[in-house]
Amino acid sequence: MTGTQGTARIVTRRTVVAAAGATGLAAALVACGGSDAPAESGAGSDSESGSAAGSTTPDDSAGGGAGPADALAKTSEIPEGGGMVFADQGVVVTQPTAGEFKAFSSKCTHAGCAVKDISDGIIHCPCHGSQFSAADGSVKAGPATQPLPATPIKVTGDSITLA
Question: What distance in Å separates the CA atoms of residue 27 and residue 19, rounded to the nearest whole number?
């Protein structure tokens, strides 16, 4: 009669199922979360998008018109029919047709995941497969039902900046 008999814990099936559910929920939240690393777009040339994602200060060749904090890319770095995701700025810049540049929020309107890549005129969300038009941000395939909000940009010479 030492009193240690009542301190043993029994693991029930309910506890195991609840723990498994919590683990699955945590995994889903991590999968839908954003990344601190810049996302790369797969619009054709991996070397272009890889180097462009890392060089967000084109003020060396653009002259004194844009500050380094606002400079996103050079126009030549955005592929026609594709685009680039700038995760740190929360924006995706596209070039639907030659010389026409558009920008949208990089946050998917379905579950808030960051869109990952742009190819063949479509912005892709990796979380649940939503697809958006690179021309106007409209939904091309769900589960998203709302378009990507437009983000104002300014093209000066060969430099693209946030407006």
Answer: 12
